[in-house]
Fold:
Amino acid sequence: MKFMLDDLDRRILRLMQSDPMRSIPDLAEQTGLSGTRLSRRIEKLRELGVLRGVRAIIDWRALGYEVEVSLRVTLDKTQTRAFDDFIAAARDIAEVIEIQTFLGRVDVRLSVIARDMVHYQQIYRAQILALPHIADIEALMHVARIKADESLPL
Structure:
């Protein structure tokens, strides 16, 4: 179900996007609402699924992970459970930080992080190549992340 935001909802969401740790009193002051009315609006946005929560974004590079590799995987689609089996197994690899599925020649993209190239090779050989139903795999080394902004144009 699509929900239409009014100007006040958009303002609340913009403020929350710019600083998710902003306190309710501060947010209420900036929106001109009482704390109670603001809380009701935020709760309504949560109930409608517009606002799914607040999360911590951890800089994995600050924790010593210096390498990110994007793996484009084509699965053996003659196997009826190829997607389900592959995704379930890929989820169990701690260094796989993102899994995306596609329609087309490439079926799945995995983002894999590692401390260095030696660590990546260990992950690749011991865990990635052991994933089920791989027909083809292509590795792309990340050089730079140009844009990774999750803020929406509200």
